[in-house]
From TrEMBL:
Parts of the chain that traverse the membrane: 6-22, 29-49, 69-95, 107-124, 130-148, 160-180, 200-218, 238-259, 271-292, 299-320, 340-358, 379-400, 412-435, 456-476
Domain NADH:quinone oxidoreductase/Mrp antiporter transmembrane as annotated: residue spans: 124-427
Name of the protein described by the UniProt record: NADH-quinone oxidoreductase subunit M
Keyword flag Transmembrane helix: yes
Predominant localisation class: membrane
Compartments where located: Endomembrane system; Membrane
Organism: Amycolatopsis roodepoortensis
Length: 493
């Protein structure tokens, strides 16, 4: 069942190219239909999965036996919310792109391929399998940016590829080192976690954590590895930006929680303060630089650096909290995973809304707009919900995530957590200023049309989910909390 979920989009992409003379209309409908079926399968998968700290739908087959690497996949409370987020965002992007008219068949096939790659990474329980999916996601997004981006897309795509490919090479070095230190040698994540091969090794574990940390930090991205992100987002098409922010950035933070923390618990505790510092710097820096932007899409890109910094702060704090404060540590990890989901929904919606803005005015420059709320009230309303969700307003998913992160981190890193609070204030200021410039005040451009049906149908459900999680978070927390306890038990070894 899980393999069907992972490879169905890839099979659909092959069909698009295998069928001769595919019409644009067929390509669009095929993409939306397959994405809808895929999301329905993921929802069914979630409904049937047992609530526990183990893996459901586990498959472990021989793949490369000479290096003890297998086709090992499974889902738990960490991966299940992320594959649901992935399926939902790809469906939203498929609906949003119904008006796409530039090489539609290739565009749809590339997104279907990217969906398989993303799902595969979140269910991979083998380091080589994880690495293959990690690298393929870079290749697919490179072509999305370069092929369908804006004016300076080629340069942004190359920068994105070089940065993230460098991160993947660092990961490969770390993965090989883990393989060599394990006895018996293996790339299996579950077996490596059980072995804890670098227990008591000191500097060696620190060097491996450095390699993994660089690889995952570039993908997240954190300061100072974030400079590829704003140009990639600014030049990418709206659907590409939504997937890049909503799904691909999570591969970095997911890697920290799935691989680095459980396999290298001693090293993680020893260097946890480094992650706390990197996290809080990313929070404040991302918010301040976002505040200085006049480009709406670039502003959203920098808020991603800010919001991903909260996740790094939380998982770093989980390594600093005393073993006696189990509840605080669990809150930090649970909040970090909840933030992954919340950020994906909110920022995915914001980038699609930025695409709507560009479609109406041909620019992201906020100074060129004004008074759009009068002629586009639905557009203004959804943007307001997304903006308030991003700044952590109670009743929305961002508040649930950030409340847990701050509560879990305050005892371990009080100064860093208090400084991180500034990020919320700055984020509130920048979104209120942006909303006022674009939607309120005197008009600076011709009246804009309101949201079309495809635009509204693609964006509104993402924001409805942020409200549902903000008011009824139990269904999400029930999935995340068991795996949070499991990660903390491993971290305490």
């Amino acid at each position: 069942m899980l393999s069907v979920v992972v490879f169905l989009p890839l099979a659909a992409a092959v069909v698009l190219f295998a069928v001769p003379r595919v019409s644009t209309r067929f390509a669009r409908c095929w993409w939306v239909g397959v994405s809808a079926v895929e999301f329905a399968l993921i929802v069914a998968l979630w409904g049937a999965a047992p609530v526990s700290d183990g893996y459901a739908y586990e498959v472990n087959l021989r793949w490369i036996p000479s290096v003890s690497s297998g086709y090992h996949i499974g889902v738990d409370g960490l991966s299940l919310p992320l594959i649901a987020l992935t399926g939902g965002l790809f469906l939203a992007c498929a609906v949003y792109s119904l008006r796409q008219d530039k090489r539609v068949r290739s565009f749809a096939a590339l997104f279907l391929f990217l969906e398989t790659v993303s799902l595969g990474l979140f269910v991979a329980l083998d380091l080589i399998l994880f690495f293959v999916y990690f690298d393929l996601s870079i290749v697919a997004m490179y072509f999305v940016i370069a092929g369908w981006g804006h004016r300076d897309a080629a340069r942004a795509a190359v920068k994105f590829f070089l940065y993230t490919f460098l991160g993947s090479l660092a990961l490969l070095v770390g993965f090989i080192a883990l393989y060599l230190t394990a006895s018996p040698h293996t790339f299996d994540v579950v077996e490596l976690t059980r072995q804890n091969p670098l227990a008591g090794s000191g500097w060696a574990a620190g060097l491996i954590l450095l390699a993994l940390g660089i690889g995952f930090a570039i993908k997240t991205p954190t300061v100072p590895f974030h400079t590829w992100l704003p140009p990639a987002h600014t030049e990418a098409p709206a659907a590409g930006s939504a997937i890049l922010a909503g799904v691909l950035l999570k591969m970095g933070t997911y890697g920290f929680v799935r691989i680095a923390m459980p396999i290298l618990p001693e090293a993680w505790r020893r260097y946890a303060l480094v992650f706390v510092i990197v996290g809080v710097v990313s929070v404040v820096y991302g918010a301040l630089v976002a505040l200085a932007q006049r480009d709406f899409k670039r502003m959203i890109a920098y808020t991603s650096v800010n919001h991903m910094g909260y996740i790094v702060l939380a998982i770093g704090a989980a390594g600093l909290v005393a073993d006696s404060a189990v509840e605080a540590r669990q809150l930090a990890v649970t909040g970090a995973v909840t933030q992954m989901v919340s950020h994906g929904l909110i920022t995915g919606a914001l980038f699609l809304l930025a695409g709507v803005l560009y479609e109406r005015g041909g620019t992201y420059d906020m100074d060129r707009y004004g008074g759009l709320a009068r002629t586009a009230p639905r557009f203004a309303g959804l943007t307001a919900v997304a903006a308030f969700a991003s700044l952590g307003l109670p009743g929305l998913s961002g508040f649930i995530a950030e409340f847990q992160i701050f509560t879990g981190s305050l005892g371990a890193a009080p100064v860093a957590t208090i400084v991180a609070f500034l990020g919320i204030l700055i984020t509130a200021a920048l979104f209120l200023r942006a909303f006022q410039k674009v939607f309120l005040g005197p008009s600076q451009a011709a009246p804009a049309a309101d949201l079309t049906v495809p635009e509204a149908v693609s964006i509104a459900p993402l924001l409805v989910l942020t409200v549902v999680i903000g008011i009824f978070p139990r269904f999400l927390l029930d999935a995340i909390e068991p795996v949070s306890r499991s990660v903390l038990n491993l971290l305490a070894r």
